[in-house]
Amino acid sequence: MVQPETRLHRRVNAHLPGWVHAEKTNNPYRAAMPDFYYEGPGVVAWIEYKNLAAWPVRATTPVSVAKHCSKRTWPRQRIWLGRAHRNGVLAAVFFGVPGGVAVLDSPALWEREWLRSEMNLVSEAEAAGWLTTKLEGRR
Length: 139
Fold this sequence. Notes:
Blueprint: H1 4-13, E1 21-24, E2 36-40, E3 43-51, H2 65-68, H3 74-86, E4 90-97, E5 100-104, H4 107-111, E6 121-122, H5 124-135
Parallel strand pairs: 3-4
Antiparallel strand pairs: 1-2, 2-3, 4-5, 5-6
Helix pairs in contact: 1-5
């Protein structure tokens, strides 16, 4: 069975131009690596894909990457992403939720809790467009 994160990254990657190097990072010796490494002309990125299968019943119940993702891997993944971000490397979490994708491109965003009404959701194509723009070197 295909995992929700796999479906999400396949849909995002389908919208990337051919010049983008996209590499799935499945490393059994380094369990906390972000899901994908991307390369453009002079810019690299680490993207972690997370998925929320369903919104909480109450719209006032906050969601977060930490609350709704693996307690085993997320603590180490957030360290990896945070270190990359501090070193000037593009690092983000693409948080798939019912209705779209939240592009969380800083520790302040991927660490916080969100109400459904606060999330700025984009389509998979728009998430790929955001990544493409960054990989072209336009910040």
